[in-house]
Amino acid sequence: MNVLLTADQIRDRVHALAAEVRDAYVGKPFTVVGVLTGSLVFLADLIRQIDLPLQIGLIAASSYRGTATSPGELTIKDDLLPDIRGRHLLLLDDILDTGQTVTRLVEHLRDRGAASVRVCVFLRKTGRQRIPFEPDFCGFTIPDAFVVGYGLDYNDEYRHLPYIGILAE
Questions:
Q1: Which residues does the UniProt record annotate as the domain Phosphoribosyltransferase (predicted)?
Q2: Coil, strand or helix: which one is 102?
């Protein structure tokens, strides 16, 4: 496996992202909503560096099954969300790929009564977006390669790796 982003690079960027997020939410009641399961490592590292009161919620959105590398029909499960009506949300996702999932999630959260929804993605893959979407915060822009580690998986493996690697075919 080729290492694309080292653990040190990730740590430094997450620290900088935490400062950006903190500055954006000072004085606002906000909830960080992590997209299961890929964002969990990123969520844990990021929120520990944000020195503001915040709530945490989780939402499941999946269009990939098993070893699939192209999306299917999107399913959303939001039973792990607190009451988000009137709150400012930071939707945290592991990767911005086609843009379909994140745009549907933003719409879903707004429909549930969020005061605002901003998006933070750990990775943004180039050349794959089908739906125009600009995240408010982005960790890294990466080439169009299948990556694993730091929460991202292949068939639910490799999430535990402290780095981002390009999975060998």
A1: 8-154
A2: helix
Instruction: Confirm whether 167 is domain-assigned.
Output: no
Residues involved in catalysis: 97
CATH of the domain at 48: 3.40.50.2020
Whole-model pTM over 0.70:
yes
SS3 assignment, position 47: helix
49-90 pLDDT per residue, tens: 999 999 999 999 977 555 555 556 788 999 999 999 999 999
Residue 166 maps to a domain: no
Strands of the chain, DSSP E: 2-5, 30-36, 54-62, 75-77, 88-96, 116-125, 137-142, 147-148, 164-166
